[in-house]
Design goal:
The complex is a heterodimer of chains A (about 270) and B (about 260). By secondary structure, chain A is of the alpha+beta class. Helices cover about 50% and strands about 25% of the residues of chain A. Chain A has eight helices and eight strands; from the N terminus they run H-H-H-H-H-H-E-E-E-E-E-E-E-E-H-H. Chain A is globular and about 70 Å long. The two termini of chain B are about 25 Å apart. Classes of the chains: A alpha+beta (about 270), B mainly alpha (about 260).
Chain lengths: ~270, ~260
């Protein structure tokens, strides 16, 4: 009895038509989210689209597609489907390890995204030269405390040409914030934070994101805590390895796609 | 030197295209050999231009519209010539040479000055990201043309040559899909390093993911549900239209972080 139920569940989730329908709905949802501006207040939607349509957007979650319950539900169903398929393939892992690795990668990426969404933090920290800062403004507009301090030793902009009368945004070569991390009164880390070169300490990453446009006296750092990132990176690694194995390193006899077809059906 | 060789490459592609046309109309096989030699010489000159630009600019030349089109045209001809024998590509000489000539003709009216690199673009991830995407795009573009040829010939050609077209268009997708995957994931890693999050549902990201999902669906339907022929060709064409929209449409129609072109 129990076994029958289990088989039925597996049969339902591990089916190509289900995956295709889910993918199709996710594609439609994503496309809608890219056409309709996201995360605005109701008033702005009604000014742009009329009140009736604005209310419909809110009802269907189209004002915030990528966090709407139905969109998350679609992703969860896709995850379950991939999970059951991968379980089923484990029996014949010798033949299907390529696709197992690929799907495992996707599973880990989606898990990582869940971890990021649930436990991740984002914010903005501003610090003046010669000062230290341990408070940042979170994405929810509330201030948060760090249990260490960020000290800005120096902020500097590098220009592409030294001519001072030509200081336009497009001539900026780099933003450099000389940062020292102070924990328990001791300097524990130091780095020149630049775009593409963030500093990470105790799980918090500090990225160059803004600056004092008048006097170059303060710097603005994006503060990110993202416990999901290691999962996502591992998932990316597995996904790439798996897909490269599938398409570039199949055994010779498998070159015709029909053999892949048989293999995948087992 | 750069300007001359790029003009010569343009002339080479155009000449090859004309010769392929003559060859197709009058069915003279020998001309196609000459055309392929001219096309290869064009590619060599084109490669020299790229290296020259790389040296002068100090970064791999994939920043801005001029460099993007220069590299995209190169990737198209390179992927075509590299895979021509292996995958027995047919009917593609004219569209590939025409597109390459158009790309080089188009950039001749663009601003060629080397713009200073904005700080966010100074990363090795972006180089891998863009190179894999352009090679992948060249691959799916070729696959798209084969699917078009399939639909064109579906009533007139023999079953054998149709099967061949169908298989080759699948093979081109399976050549390109790993590159699209590498491009998508390295882009996410780069975003994490530059902006702090690996995914922010920026329109360019969203449409890149949509294209990737369509090709994933295509591969699954083909391999597991035996989608062949016309159905597969239509899905493949939809996939490429999404790629085109990702590459061009998003920049013109939507606001986002990818406004570098």
């Amino acid at each position: 009895m129990l076994r029958k139920i289990k088989e039925r569940i597996i049969k339902f989730f591990c089916s190509i038509p289900l995956v295709i329908v889910l993918l199709g709905l996710i594609i439609i949802g994503s496309a809608l989210g890219s056409c309709i501006p996201q995360g605005l207040p109701l008033a702005e939607y009604s000014a742009k689209y009329g009140i009736a349509r604005a209310q419909l957007f809110f009802l269907l979650g189209l004002n915030d597609v990528y966090h709407a319950p139905w969109f998350i539900a679609l992703l969860s169903l896709l995850w379950l489907s991939l999970f059951t398929c991968t379980l089923r393939q484990l029996k014949s892992w010798r033949k299907s390890f390529r696709s197992i690795i690929t799907h495992l990668g996707l599973l880990v990426i989606l898990l990582g995204a869940l971890v990021t969404g649930a436990f991740g933090e984002k914010g903005f920290l501003m610090v003046y030269e010669g000062h230290s800062q341990d408070v940042f403004l979170g994405a929810d507009n509330k201030f948060r405390n760090l249990d260490f301090k960020i000290y800005l030793d120096d902020f500097e902009i590098e220009w592409y040409d030294s001519a001072s009368d030509n200081k336009r945004e497009s001539r900026i070569k780099d933003f450099k914030s000389k940062i020292v991390v102070i924990d328990n009164g001791k300097a524990v880390a130091a780095k020149i934070v630049r775009v593409n070169h963030p500093l990470t300490y105790k799980g918090f990453t500090f990225l160059q994101s803004s600056y004092d446009k008048k006097e170059y006296r303060w710097t603005g750092l994006e503060v990110v805590r993202d416990p999901g990132a290691p999962f996502v990176y591992s998932g990316f690694f597995l996904l790439n390895i798996g897909i490269i194995l599938i398409f570039y390193f199949r055994p010779k006899r498998n070159i015709s796609e029909d053999v892949v077809y048989e293999e995948a059906n087992q | 030197m750069n300007l001359t060789s790029i003009n010569l490459a343009f002339a080479g592609y155009l000449l090859a295209c004309i010769l392929y046309c003559i060859c197709a109309i009058f069915k003279i096989k020998k001309i196609s050999v000459v055309a392929t030699i001219i096309l290869s010489i064009g590619l060599i000159l084109h490669t020299l231009c790229l290296i020259n630009r790389w040296q002068i600019a100090g970064h791999f030349p994939v920043v801005g519209l001029y460099e993007s089109m220069l590299f995209l045209g190169w990737a198209l001809v390179f992927v075509y010539l590299a895979l021509k024998k292996l995958y027995k590509l047919k009917y593609l000489e004219i569209p590939v040479t025409l597109l390459a000539a158009l790309a080089l003709g188009y950039i001749s009216i663009l601003d060629k000055s080397i713009k200073p690199l904005m700080p966010a673009l100074k990363s090795n991830w972006i180089t891998i990201h863009v190179i894999s995407y352009f090679i992948g795009y060249a691959g799916v573009a070729i696959s798209f043309f084969i699917s078009i040829a399939y639909l064109w010939k579906v009533k007139s050609a023999s079953a054998d040559s149709l099967t061949q077209l169908d298989t080759v268009s699948y093979r081109m997708v399976s050549f390109a899909f790993p590159f699209l995957t590498i491009g998508l994931t390295t882009g996410a890693v780069w975003a994490k390093v530059a902006w702090g999050s690996y995914w922010s549902w920026d329109p360019k990201e969203t449409w890149a993911l949509i294209s990737w999902c369509i090709y994933a669906a295509y591969l699954h339907l083909r391999l597991l549900k035996n989608w062949r022929g016309t159905r597969a060709a239509y899905l493949n064409i939809i996939g490429f239209l999404c790629v085109l929209f990702t590459f061009f449409g998003v920049n013109f129609l939507m606001k986002g972080l990818h406004s570098y072109l």
